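task queued by scheduler; priority normal; single chain, no ligands, no partner chains; default sampling; output format set to structure tokens
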Amino acid sequence: MTFSDALKCKECGKLYPLEAMHVCKFCFGPLEVSYDYDEISSSISKESIASGPLSIWRYRDLLPVSGSDYVDLGAGFTPLVKAERLGRYLGLKNLWIKNDTLNLTGSFKDRAVSVALSKAKELGLKVAACASTGNLANSVAAHAAAAQMESYVFIPTDLEAVKVITTTVYGRNVIAIDGNYDDVNRLCAEITSEEPDWAFANVNVRSYYSEGSKTLAFEVAEQLGWRVPDHVVVPIGSGSQLTKIHKGFTELYRVGLIDSEPQVRVFGCPTTGVFPSSKRLCTRTRLREACEAVDDSKVAGYRKPSGWSVCIGCGSCYEGCCSGSL
């Protein structure tokens, strides 16, 4: 069973059924999975988690998938390594590094895609797809092969071939689009309206896809003896992983797995080529400096016109798109 009960708009609060959709029809705000935390707290325990698989699915009560027919390639429960020498260099006594390169396709995307395609199968969707500049493409192709689903991966035409070698191993439909990542993503959004049986990981099943990232927070807390760190530094692109890790720590408190409300501060670190002079801090309640100017640099298929802004709150590239609040 699943304890998720609806999709909820983060902007206006409107509720929707658990279907393949990710944007509010009323205000166009992003949709997020809502859970019955009271029911979860009566079901979940540290002991039940410890007896589960060594993957993200040990936290199945906090994920939006019914049953046990998961698309599971063993994503998650990667090592949390104490970096003693680096810690001494930085003046930190307790510095830990979460090594998600040990997931099957080499990145945290395997967490998100495992959840997205598991939900897609539950919803009866037949084809797995995505817009990508590398890591997501590899993960979607691998998980689609395991689920015996056809896969289509759309990439910018000038993407380096080495970034999608793994994709071509698992799936044969890699389609290069003449444009940057934003162009590819817009095309995929259009295709979802024409192909209702397709599950685009980062479009129409994005609400479920993004839930996979919060398992990083679950694992870190469990591996630290059910303690929450003071600070977490997260590599980010759109910023979704940053907000979901914060959500993950909060959920542990809401279901009684940690004793006190987490005071963790989560720092998002994008590459300077995409977000020059970035200094963003996620506190308990909001993102500071959510929107910053982006030059017309090019990194991994991303190109933004000079003077535009990228909002980490929603991942859009338009000025004044949202407040960036969590």
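post-processing summary
- The two ends are 28 Å apart (CA to CA).
- The first helix runs from residue 37 to 43.
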